[in-house]
Structures
1.
Amino acid sequence: MRGYLLLSCLLLSACAGLPATIRNVPVADITYSQANQNLNSYKDTSVRWGGVIIEVENEENFTLVQVLSHPLNYYGRPQLSKPSEGRFVIRSSEFLDPAVYAKDKEITVAGTLKGDIERTIGKKTIRLPLLFSTAIYLWPVFQNNPYYGYGYPGFGYGGYGMNPYFGYGYYGNPFWGGYNRPYW
């Protein structure tokens, strides 16, 4: 009984970090590299891939998004610190605004492999895996917060944040040390 309980907890926690839009889509555990080696054997297989948007092309009835593939972390977010695996193209039946789905934004998609598509990069024509999207998740951008340092709002990066009004303080807090503290 204990084994079943442990197994069910592990299975439930495996998907807990994924955003709901891509978590609820059943997928096979096939990496970009595996599929790219023999695309025909994985045709009509559901996968979850991600990366950085390179280009968005809106056609009359669908949108094509070219993505520079990166492996996904536990949360389903592309790991930009890992080397790129190549490119793939997402085909969405919905209109995806190029201002929202802009170049260099991180994206994760769950969808079905439908073969490949020919694209021209520079003067070279290549074939890229084509993925019909079931669910798309556009990741929020981590921004430099001038009041609290880098990363998540409210937390300094590496223990020190920069506050333009109060100087440099421990964790971005002007009352925890630093220079130019207010006189109140």
Note: Helices lie at 2-14, 20-23, 32-37.
2.
Amino acid sequence: MAVVKAKKNLGQHFLTDLKIAKKIVESLQSNCSNVLEIGPGMGVLTQFLFQEPSFKTTAIDVDRESIAYLQDKYEDLSDQIIYGDFLSYDVSLLYASEPFAVIGNFPYNISSQILFKVLDHKNQVPEVVGMFQKEVAERLASPPGSKAYGILSVLLQAYYKIEYLFTVHENVFNPPPKVKSAVIRLTRNSVEELACDEKLFKKIIKATFNNRRKMLRNTLKPFLTRDGFEHHFLTQRPEQLSVADFVELTNAIVQFQNK
């Protein structure tokens, strides 16, 4: 097993078990040849990605030492190893309008932000395979009705099928995290656009889940400029609604406001 340097300031714990690293890479199932690895560190996943002839892998990391190490190790592929912050990086510089899959052992403290950026490029990203804190992974894959179901669950499930693949224990990381981790796979579904006002859809989801203990009758008041709105979802809480339910609710609010 390879021991790698820890970047505690990034909230990242580095995988040291090569069998698990290989299993993560093998979890990529789409036919997309462009693969973007986020946060490669010392390259425990990168080595298997570069060995796969059907992939053109690009690795991006904010740590200069990691980038220097990888560029030295893979001198012939150094142009595919980039210093940069994925959250602010213009991915069109790499892929223009081409599709690209995303993979990584994501730093825990920015994993949700990574997924929000994936959503910004959802029509280019057919698949994501990533390691997350176990609780976050469970939340993303949770169905309606679950206590773990939340904002990102709905927003991602609107456009992706989410599969919880396997749990990863603490002892295969350096440094060992205080929590278990898990690998999930997101596979793009056929929805190009939601059948509603997508901006309002997102606002409603965020507002209702930020007050998830309240019934929707109370949390939807900011979206209603007058009284009289009635709907069968008003006595429910947000975790009880599916993506399709939120689409229906969004359309009902728009129709009410336009009367």
Note: The longest helix spans residues 243-257.
3.
Amino acid sequence: MNNDFGTFTDNETIRFKRVLRGTLKQVWACLTESEHKAKWLAGGDVEPKIGGKVTHHFNHQNLSEEKETLPEKYSDIGKTSTSYGEITKYEPYTLLGYTWDEGDEGTSEVIFELSQHNPDSILLILTHKRIPDNNDFKVGLGAGWHTHLNILRDVLEGKAARGFWKIHMPLENEYEKMIK
């Protein structure tokens, strides 16, 4: 395994670390500005204050030029979906946290921590807490964040992103092995 894989630090938390090319300002824009966020995760607003609203308009087909078929496993979410949350932590350029609506599974929390790694790169630590205690859910979540973070790295390096599902689905097998 390479160091891109998330680590389950306990039964309800996964943590990812990525060194990303760019500045704190560039990476922060990718986390908080809809135009930039839409290129690697999902479009939608991030209201810049604790208690502010977060919106994610997912369309995985738009993350790459590659055209893909939605896997049968994810047909229930459709080609597009929207998720809402609330800002829990907000320190510009260093810390962003928000709730994540998990539907029937409740509410989790995503936290992004940014720090200068070297003059040309940023260390991003993503922690997703209060993950529902469901192995299939954890497999999809681990593979999902892993894929989105790889796309973020590609975006910041000016590379064309590969198709989301083409990356995601094989990663599910790896995360399933980690959980068992």
Note: The chain is about 30% helix and 30% strand.
